[in-house]
Amino acid sequence: VTEARVIDWADVEQTEPLPGILRQTIHGDQQSMVRYVYAPGSVFPVHSHPQEQITVVLSGVIAFTVDGKRVVLGPGNVAVIPGGVHHGAIVEGPETVVTINTMSPRRAEDPLSS
Amino acid sequence: VTEARVIDWADVEQTEPLPGILRQTIHGDQQSMVRYVYAPGSVFPVHSHPQEQITVVLSGVIAFTVDGKRVVLGPGNVAVIPGGVHHGAIVEGPETVVTINTMSPRRAEDPLSS
Prior knowledge:
2 copies of one chain form a homodimer. The first copy, chain A, is mostly beta strands.
């Protein structure tokens, strides 16, 4: 069981699971929170995972494919992606994109499953 | 079961559960995402709920009390609050505060439980 804690994103390990895509993860017991920074031109291939995902765009514009449909997300947009639904993302514009994804149930440590 | 969907925070109903505290909620099946805007001086009294909560501060500075301990959170800070742990918040500074809270399991529609 996790304890109450306060974290600074600046102290969370950052990995690059795909070219130009930086990822940081914070795990609770019930959910995982993932912060992504996507460089212009970066691509997250279409995939799925059993967890429900809610993505919030904090900055930049990113094109998602969700269940075969294209949706362009910008700041203030949220995508709710049920478990098992295929999705992917590509940064077509010139801006770096920052998103927060919440995954529930808690995600395993699979480096490509988000 | 919810379907995949894209939402703009601007289209989500905003309520004021406490003076100076504006709330918007998006529900998935596994989790609820809550966006709060806190005016300077606003107070969220200490409370608890069975859901695990992860709070991300997007802007402003807010003092949380978590399990009796004071922690001051600013942009880039994240608080992980297990289910059942008492917590509250107060905006002591001059800035409006925006946070995203994720709650899992999905939250019921209790207007004060977050």
